[in-house]
Amino acid sequence: MGEIALTGAHAGVQKVSCMRAATVALVVSHNDGSSALLETLSDDREIALFETAMSTGEENPLQSVYEFRTRQQKEETEFADYVEDLLSKPFLRPEIQEHGVQWLKSKIRIEQYQKSEIQAAKVIADYAFQVFSQKPETTDFFLSGPTAKVRIRVFVVKNASTLSEAA
Question: What are phi and psi of 30, to 5 degrees?
Answer without folding.
Answer: -135, 105
